[in-house]
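Chapter summary example.
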Amino acid sequence: MQWNATCAIALCGLSALFASTSANAEWVKLEPPDAGFSVFLPATPKLETKEEPSRTHSRIWIARVGTILCLMGTTDYYAPFDKEVELDLDMKNFLKAIDGTATAQEKVSFRDAPDGPLPALRFSFSKTSWTGRSLVVLAGDRVYQAVGMSSAASDAKDLARCVAFKITAKSPHWQAP
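The structure predicted for these 177 residues follows.
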């Protein structure tokens, strides 16, 4: 839940950048050694972190090129949470933060992880002139969320690439089923 608030701040700050013209993306692989994932982003990302002591630790990597904005985030929770409720709240809080509307959603099993399949939610959304996709995956007490947004419909292939990530390590946190 916390990551979504941080994500919204980042999106608000970057939303004005969508007015620029589209540029060819030079996709770079992001694989932070302690984050447990790998993803390709359309540019070298900037990292934002937020800590709520004894509650959560969130990190968001933000990359933007032309009309494409990709975010990859992790949030570690230091308290148990209900998996089904968390998936729904992550989507609802994200959409509320950007004032967006879900256009489709599907609960899936995320298999691209060493300890998969993991519970996940894939959803599409729109906001004024933006469209986007997101994938939320729960791995123990860690939540991964990938987001791809664009103001141009022709970027659909790139948006799919923004949310196609792999979990490369078991979560350092554990939560009972």
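To summarize the output: The mean pLDDT is 83.
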